[in-house]
Protein 1
Amino acid sequence: MSLSATKVRRSVAVLALTVAAAALTACGATASSSSPAAGAAPNADRAAAATGVSSSVNLDSCSKPTRTIKHDLGTTTITGNPTRVVALEYSFVDALVAVGMSPIGVADDNQPKRIIPALRDKVGAYKSVGLRATPNIQVITALKPDLIVADSGRHKAIYAQLSKIAPTIAYASLNGNYQQVLDSEMSTAIALNKCDEMKQRLAEHGKLMAGYKAEAPADENRKALFVRASDKGFTGFPPKAYTPGVLSAIGIGSALPDSGTDASVSLTLETLVATKPDIMFIAANDGPTLRDTWAKSPLWKQLPAVANNASYDVDPNEWSRSRGLIASEVVAQEAVKLLYGK
Amino acid sequence: MSSATIVAQRVRRTSLARKHPAVLMGSLGVLAVVLSFYSLSVGATDVSMSDVFKAVIGDTSDQAAQIVVQFQLPRVLLAWLVGTALAVSGAVMQGVIRNPLAAPDIIGVTKGAGFAGMLLLLAIPGLPVVAVVPAAFVGGLAAAGLVYLLAYRRGATPVRIALVGIAVSAAFEAGIRFLLVRNPLDVSAALIWLTGSLFGRSMSSVLEILPWVAVLVPLIVVWARKLDVLGLGDDLAAGLGEPVERTRRTLLFFAVALAAAAVAVSGTIGFVGLIAPHMARRVFGGRHLASVPASALFGVLLLLTADMLGRGLAPPLEIPAGLVTAVVGGPYFLYLLVKTGK
Amino acid sequence: MAVSASSVGTVPKPSVDATHKRPKIVTNKQRVTWVALVLLVLLVAGAVWGLSIGSQHIPLTQLPGAIVKADTPGELILQSIRLPRVVLALCVGAALAVAGALMQAVAANPLAAPEIMGVNAGAVFVVVLAITVVPSLSGAPTILLAFGGAAAAGVSVMLLAGSGRGRVSPVRLALAGVTASSLLISLTQVLIIFDENSTDSVLFWLVGGVNFASWHDVRNLLPWLVLGLLGAFAMARPLNLLALGEDMARGLGQNVERTRIIGSALVIVLCGAAVSVAGPVAFIGLIVPHIMRRLVGSSYTVLLPLSALGGGALVLYADILSRYIKPPFEVPAGVVTALLGAPIFVYLARRQKVTTS
């Protein structure tokens, strides 16, 4: 092989590597999150049959003996009234409890404590099917369910197998925002043939949230920041995400700018200072977290939220992990209590 | 340390294997089959052996058992195919690179496939999961091709292949980390896929890898003598009339294709390709006609065991098989090497 | 017989070379001075740049005030956030680069580097294990644990590759290191996956960075950094001797085993401390010594200090660059060093002149 040919080969390879690196960066510049843009606040003034649910949810199947449900991973037909339901995310447990039902199996990460108190009492006995990330298909099968509700992101790969066990519907829970959570609960209720119960519950929900909103003074224009704190991270959630969506439904705006499609943003103390949150809700993990380290800094004390005693510690299970109708009411109730002492 | 250690002279054989290699291999095969049946019955819910037999035959009298077997069967079949593919790939690589530490991982296949798969999974979230497998396969092949190209300089010597392979793997690993950092919410799922497991695989996965194993493994066994000859060293091999570079290239292609298919289908299960050939050589000697099929058998046994342990250790938790092979295989391998002084 | 670096010209090449070209122990004083100057300028420029980026604009005239009293928010940000970050980046970079150079000397292998040898992975694994079991652990105890992990991994890899039987081929060492690394990284990943508590930890322990640097971290690292650097500089001459070849060095009266052991211990100290504070920032130990060698030759009396400067600069700039990936939000610096270092690693691997075996 001649020297120039070797050189050519080498340059080609180097060029290829450079192009690949450039492509990577270009890829990175474009959007990469998977949560579609939807309004953060529920469509409260819609005069249709279901309060707060967006128009994409098809209510025609309600109360029919055979119902066709369109969900994130396809279309599923369900007959009869499912009673043995396996929920593979906490938000689906929420949906079941909202219509007075109880799951027979839950993917609870082997930590039953993660189910929030508001749900735990009503859930009763269930069988754990393992991690949300990798639920145990054998256990699910053994439960002989007649409906499975899965997360369209996490469980995309096993959707086909789940469908063989029982009719399976899938929604975006992990990456879902407030509107999507409400929509998915309505759709789940249609699948369960509990339309009227869910419509009623949604109406109650609307009233409750409006009630919480009313507790806020009319001129409330403080901006709130919701963060998860861990030992190596301080993660904020932009306005379109679930928890800020709930807060916005009761009239509290987000301190973070609308960042397009990012589902979360990692904050440093400096960016936190630049954000200037008037209110902070901090959901911290167990053990020492960055919050503890930063709290020692004078910069922390100068944050508007801290200076005005508007920085509150909240439970990660209630405010972040359990995304659902009932969970959002818990969040709203606690927010109102913390902010206005009611 | 002579590089021709792989060829028969210096490797120990047990006396049993020397006298009756076929018998021993047959027994290993039987062991694998027995283990397969056992694996079908083990899990979070135990199925009795008789039910397993019935279900395999097609007797649908016990519904639950039948479904369980229906899901376990692809996993077991996959353990056979992936175990064979990885082990044979490793045996070929160790023969071609003339180094007992060589494994499919080092030529960039694993990381390349991982990177391609992750790129698709994370960057294009709307993509159906089906598309990931061919992408990962192509990625693995492309990475290995890149390694070969970069290592080529008047021929690609084994040493250069190994070194460049490690470097290219590191490059793809960097790419994978970049992707992880850009998509923090999906990190757990991505890492689980990357760790390699047989979780949730269905018959389609089996069919995807079957042709490669069915075609390439027999081909490699037919070429076993060429592997022996290559093991003597480039000069000797050329002296014996073997077109060294071409043979090496072809064999490497076989090894890479097998490894890429395995990774595409089950994620990056490590150490099987490293340990199985070792065990095969210790028991059956260095001649590839015996050690290649033996590697396959040991690979199957390893993977079956890893999968079973992963499912049975802490139900309903499913420990990925790739992790079990790492935890068990890693230390065992280190011990092996220190003990034999190679 | 003392061999003074500044008086040595080219060393006569010994006849047999099994794996790689003998290092040229040439020191051109002018060149060294130039390179040192350039590095210092780069460092200062980098520090200035690093201190100026952030979500708010803070004129650097506030810097003196920031160091002295830190009253205004601007000064506070400079003093408690940006300054420790710049300083930590410099420290971590220096530690890893010198550790890499030491490792290459001890293993007599230009491809030896903490991450390739599993040393970093060992440190990370032990720290993550400790934190999983005892979540409230932090600071000084974790550094000691990191030492243990780094030591265990490094020693295992050396044993694995069969050192002590004479020169170990680069391939063998690299392969052994990769095997050990991947094992440890798998284990670490699993600890993190099943904790499911925070992806931030995952990223930190997989990738490494100085995003949340505080003076606390700097204080933890500094004593070990100083110890490691001073020890390394003191070892420069013995290492130069070692580089002539084991037999030659022994012939010249050096205790080769002792040199190797002290060198390895220093590597463990520097890596363990750096990793426990900033995670496994990749490739510094590999590429910085290599670049320095190309510029100023292989005499460790100049290579080590210049590597320290170069490593500091590299991590500093990587951290700065990482700020532009997803502005204004954070990405760990380890990603940048990995993406930058990987192609260079590939280039190095290709250049390895090895005889066929």
Protein 2
Amino acid sequence: MKIKKLFQQAASIVVLSFIIGFSVNFSLVKKYFQGEFRHAFILSEEYPSIKFIFLAEAEELFSRGEALFIDTRSEEDFQAGHIFGARNIPFVEHEEEKVLNLLPFPLDKTLVVYCDGSECQSSVELAKFLHEHDFRDIRVFFGGWVEWVREGLPVDSGSEYDSQ
Amino acid sequence: MIRNKYILFAFRLMVGGVFIWTGLLKIFDPLGFAQNIANYKVFPQGISFFLALFLPWIEVICGAFLIVGIFRGASSLLLSGLLSVFLVLIILTILRGIDIDCGCFGSIGRKIDYKLILMDSVLLFFSLNIYLKTK
């Protein structure tokens, strides 16, 4: 088969896939251009209890003392340093049952979940899990631990039980 | 290179069948697949999103074409390309020590491990043989 014809056929398949993929998911494409999915690939109407917040709001919630901060990083990372007063609930996929045992909070409590920063996903995964278990006010702190430390905000180290 | 037409037909059925199945799983959950792509930490959020919209359709169309026997060369070439990219991504992910689902089967969780490298390599071998036969 001539190489030119082969590439023409391959290009046709790619173009066809583009057209079908975009047409079938037109509503998602529209939502993307309206600003959704910039932080995580979740539909706001499917997860109405989850909000994405930035440093200023996280700091305000921290200073008001009404929200519970949940650190979803590993126990080792948490012990090395975490937001002052945070609880450690590392979210490990396929081990969700363990997480339930660590959640003795009222369902309307404001929960601020965070992990390393904008590139980690465990905070979003935990937020989805919390939503599915009827928690009603979940904020994902997008900047996470990296941004909190960079701004010199209050931190602690050791296990959460050391500071109690 | 394998020349036996019955074996090559079996290769087409296997590669085509696997890609139709995995492609459909991804088509039904585009956001889940977008998240899977983003988890590799190779592509930015926007690119992960748009890849998730059309990549599964390439898989399904090429898979169907392979089974039916239309555009066999182009379909096997595209699928070989995809399999090669998947292989590189899987190896890089293992080397970087990132523990994630591969995203190969849509929202059905399948962790990245060495067995996955073997599975992708076998499919790539089948797919390349189909391509070389059409040349």
Protein 3
Amino acid sequence: MKTTLLLTAFLVIVVAPAALARVKLVALPERARVVVSLTHPDATLIEEERIIALQKGVNKVDFSWRGVNIDGTSIQIRALTNPDKVIVLNTSYPPNENALIWEINSPAAQEERVRISYLLTGLTRDIVYKAIAEPDEKSLALRNYLRLRNESGEDLTEAELGIGYGAAFKKSIAHEEVLEMLSERIDSLPIRKLLTWDAATLPWDPEYEKKTVGIPLSYVITNSASSKLGRHTLLPGKVRIFIKTREQPVRDGEAPGDGVAFTGEDWAQLTPVDREMKLYIGQSRDVKVTQRRTKDERLNIRRNNSQQEVVWDKDEVYKIEIENFKKTIVDLVVVEHVPGYWKMVENSHTKEFRKKDAFTFEYHLALPAESTGTKKTTVTFELNRLNVQGNNELSTY
Amino acid sequence: MRPFKTVRDNAAAWVLLGLFVALPAGARINVVTLPGRDSVQLTIYNSADITLVKETRALTFRKGLNKLEFSWANTLIDPTSVEFKPLTHADAVDLLDVSFPPRVSNTLEWRIQSDFAGEVIVEIRYFTSGIGWDAGYVAEAARDEKAMTLAGSVRVTNHSGEDYENAQIRLVVGVIRLVEDILALAQQGQVAAQAGMPAATPAPVLMRAAKEESRTRMLGVDALMADKQKEIIKEGVSEYFLYTVEGRDTIPNGWAKRLPSFKTPEVPITSYYKFERERWNDQVMRYYRFTNSEPSKLGREPLPDGDVKAFRFITDDSLYAFVGRSAVKYIPVNESVEMELGADREVIVKPTLMNWNKTDLSFDNNGNVKGWTTRETWEFEVQNSKDIDVMLDIRRNFSGDWSLVTDAVYDKVDANKVKFVFPLKSREQRKFAYELTVKHGTNATR
Amino acid sequence: MTLLVLVLGLQGAQGRINVVTLPGRDTVQLTIYNSVDLTLVKETRVLTFRKGLNRLEFSWANTLIDPTSVEFKALNHADAVEVLDVSFPPRAGNTLEWRIQSEFAGEVTVEIRYFTSGIKWAADYVAEAARTEKNMTLSGQVRVTNNSGEDYENAQVRLLVGTVRLVEEIAKLARESERLDRDHPANRPMTEMLATNAVLRARFTATAGAFSDEWEKRAEIVKESLGEYFLFTVEGRDTIANGWSKSLPSFRTPGIPLTSYYKFEKERWQNSVIRFYRFTNSEPSNLGREPLPDGDVKAFRLSSADSLLSFVGRTAVKYIPIQESVELDLGPDLEVMVTPVLMNWTKVDLNFDGNGNMNGWTTVEEWEFDVQNGKDIDVMVDIRRNFSGDWSLVSVAPYEKVDASKVKFIVPLNSRARQKFAYELKVKHGINAIR
């Protein structure tokens, strides 16, 4: 404990000011309670309660800290036992010292429980998620850990830790200690598994690639009651996902045990209630997407008097061939980007088509198991891009 | 009976202390046990420098609060990954929290409340860096290059700082995503603050440790196979494939070990040749093409990406010729794949522009040319000087308002690419031609 | 700082100098400005004059007093006491000497006034919002910091809020009069202990209007203009030793109505939604008795039945006049989300000039806004959009035109509610534009 609280009984003693050295006197009341609020991502609030013996009249209470990263301007004191009668008159800050002196007026000699609060830097928290998925990848068991890191200079004893949800903790944590504790555990949490092929970021023709093209694999968790969540915002932190595996017996004749394999990790973004958390954890190489533009023609070219092309339309046909080499159905989202003013003319998969915004659309496809070769999925669409005018056509917004 | 027992005398210090704290007032701490590992399992990834280690140990708990210290100096363990799980008496053993004590590197302490006194089997799991594996293949083509024998092996390399003895080895084929480097996390020694959310999505990291061949001593195939080859059991998990090596292996720090995975004869292949000026200039590239499928005697599992050495039998008594060294992509089941074997001068493709003209000029009001059309006549001479039949794949790329006239059979690959694919018998020569018309300026209508 | 009365005996050529008295201060009053580094010190002392010429020496080594500002005034027997001149003796730094002709022998109470730099004050606020964020308790404090080099004991403290323009900085004037080798007072070791005998709780009484004191009118002349200001007088007497600062509670007002207000404006904050606490300094809001000086605010929210707090954020607040509504900027809040999506974009109505070049076109944008409140309290969301050119808007959602090129949509959202609205923006370009 490196903060100290000194209580100086100060009765109506009139002393010549020059004669008063800064004397620190009287007892060091122990903390009766320490509460750590970790709800703010950048600032940790400490509220500690102490019982101090007040004399009748003006009391001087000296609070000082050395080697502790307290924000001195944030320190407040509140009387809890007699909040209306015990009054803080003023606060003095001595030069070149991490200290302050409260003058507290008490109507009687009495014990008073006071709550001192301050912002402490260096006591920070990380949120860590670990999950174990079922082999069918339809659900997982999620564990949410609070990892507290104390670089504040202060040792905290039996502190009540609050992050705004989950288990309530009462823990001791020394300076420079890191403490990890389980705050929530949710079993059988439903997930959706998705592959996402984005035409803007992945190669169109895998044949021309040196390595097998990996298609990003994501698990999607919905922060809602139907997913056994939805009670609070999910805070950002690292998510590590494992999957259950069937173990090979260690010795002949033994029954195979349960095991896990690691399937990848991602940073979880802050996810409010009813929103989705999409975790990109790895790549699938058992689905092959080949996209080709099979028609790329200009129509209706309008030229100026110097015969320069001013504006035209385009007729474009795209063919996406998708092979699923897996023995299971795969959900694949194909993302396409078309800038400018365009209209869809032909579309082989209208039911799977979703327009996301003016320049983006998606196909949400369920690829049949082992749909390769002649059984592959083929999506074609034809679009007309209208009034194309060089490269600056989008400069108006 | 391990031939490599003296490899490391400076072994990583593994300390697992069961500490008992007398619950009332409790400053009396007793070191109860210092148990060794009962079993170890390594799950090794090849797309990133990460290995999941699972070990079991038998600990003796007392009723009440038990403190268990785990430390791992001189290893590459990620401290944020260490997990504890009781396998027996799980209902009676409750993990309260994990503490990384101040000013002590590479140590953590579990505080465990136990309602059971006695021996408990616990599982400890963590990630380490420095262990990797890769796949290697040897393709032995028949003399006619119509079939091959394909043999696969895996090589495990341990630079983790830790000897793993009698470990069950599992290899994961797949690309997992890591948002932080395990090696960096391990080298911090302590649990560092999370870096936060990077704006850009980093690409999956590629394995590093296993490439340090110079420092790695190789355990020959002979050394590991005491009596029989170990079977590798293969299982699909999510988007990955899990290979479990039968039995137990010991891979000391600094060593590599190769394990044969499969050997399949009579895999049908096609000797396939490609020509595409935009990729390889005037060279003709050679490929062995095969399919990872059951009709091809394969197809039981995907084949991991790896290095291939290709040979061809040139005599009846199985003398070899080295064909090429190449890399093969990851091959899903039922996918066909091409092993690139480099340029081959015995198959020749020679395109010649035989004729060029410019016609259909049109002019604007100032008398300047505003539209024209070019016409090119191309002649292709192809020749197979090899003693085997091959397939040839010739690709041509065009742009603008183009059209093609030819008697030869071709496929339109996309709006601006065509391909001519045909077989060429041994010693065969052939010619074909096409006429390309491109409309320019106001002549262009598309 | 010393004051010496030197009595000149006979008016001979060589002055025989006697030290007569060393009087202490009787009263001190500090008027501290917060907009500039300026404090007016007014002190009274009782001196004993003799009839004839009296020389009074005033010196102030190791302080930040502006030597040009020191003034002398007799408060009684004023008709009999006349200042002949003031001299700044050669080779004596930080000293002046008044030559005073007195027709009276005996005790005279004099007032000495001067400006010093190095004393400042600042306001600090703590806002404690209720869990619902529908109301709050606001408490204010002022913190006075004394780095002037001088201990002011038992001083009456007055704080001036408002903007004062100084022609020359006091600190600069004080420095110019100093010797080069002098230590800065801020670096001096603390010599004296805080002495407190003001038992009364400090309270502020606000006085509106101009200083009545003629002397202070002089200050007006020095500063050219002394605009609108507010004067706070701290009840009782305080001692603020050099190097110390002191915080004095000013007010604590519960039940101030509060709006949890969120703003989205891409041009200012990109995709962030910024959280504000909004309240009014008015009587219906239990405030409005005085303006609130600018200062730092720390905002908390009550998070438990036993009044535990959680930290919301900190910000600076500008001077808040009476009746003014104020917004405390508490930074981005990720739990309120505004997602604008351009759902459709078309370019139509092409026009061409005589040369066949395009000279007019019109774009139509369909925007869809998804607004979600992930919090467990009700909020207001203020979404602003900026347009330019010949634009027109078609929207079922109500909106308000802020100016010629800005509109705002105000969306109240209950706890955990989500709402969508859309508008169509048409912009005419080139010759299509008619305005």
